Amino acid sequence: MLDACLQMPAAIDKREILRLLRESVSADLATMSAAQRVVVDGATHEENRPENDKDTRALEQSYLARGQAQRVVELQDALNLLKALELTAFKPESRISLGALVVLDDGGGVEHYFIAPAGGGVRVTVAGAEVRVVTPQSPIARALLGKQEGDDLELRTPQGVRECSIASVS
């Protein structure tokens, strides 16, 4: 029963969205980890020792390594949050919260949004539909949280204010 509830009428499966999102964050984590190791090796390499008091190559490399190490930690935290996310079925009267797949209709078409604890900005294609991942910190998710199917809302975007209605929540 829960499996049927987790699918949109257009066959968009939230489990597939979450799987693709986890893969995207995992790939970013692997890439950043490898880049961070290269920078650390460069910062500590014998050839990067300062030749004089004006030579800042090693210092610059260490700053870069520190920034990349922070990004690795952020990506690992994001992946952990996504692994811990449990998908639930939403009914038409349910309030939108984490794990919701929301379809917005602005009269000119529909857009699909998946509200996740991390991975904002990622776009995945499932069942032929593009789904945008948003986090609770994003303006779109803040406008959606607590609303329910059938509600109207105004989204403030860089292109201006868009009036939309929540066509479905699952």
In a nutshell, what does this entry contain?
This protein is 41% helix and 22% strand. By secondary structure, the chain is an alpha+beta fold. Strand 3 and strand 4 form a beta hairpin.
Question: What does this protein structure show overall?
Answer:
- This protein is α+β, with helices and mostly antiparallel strands and 170 residues long.
- The protein folds into two domains: 14-84; 87-169, Roll (Chitinase A, domain 3), CATH 3.10.50.30.
- It is built from four helices and six strands; from the N terminus they run H-H-H-E-E-E-E-H-E-E.
- Strand 1 and strand 2 (110-115) form a beta hairpin.
- Helix 2 (14-44) packs antiparallel against helix 3 (57-84).
- The two termini are 13 Å apart.
- Mean pLDDT is 87; it is low at 1-10.
Parts with pLDDT < 50 across at least 5 consecutive residues: 1-10
> How are the strands of the biggest sheet laid out side by side?
3-4-2-1-6-5
Shape: elongated
Return Rg in Å: 21 Å
Strand content: 15-25%
Q: Indicate the structural class.
A: alpha+beta
- Largest pleated sheet: 6 strands, mixed
- State the domain count: 2
Reported by name, the CATH topology of the largest domain is: Chitinase A, domain 3
Please give the alpha-carbon distance between the first and last residues: 13 Å
CATH class of the largest domain: Alpha Beta
The percentage helix is: 40-55%
Provide the CATH superfamily of the largest domain: Transcription elongation factor, GreA/GreB, C-terminal domain
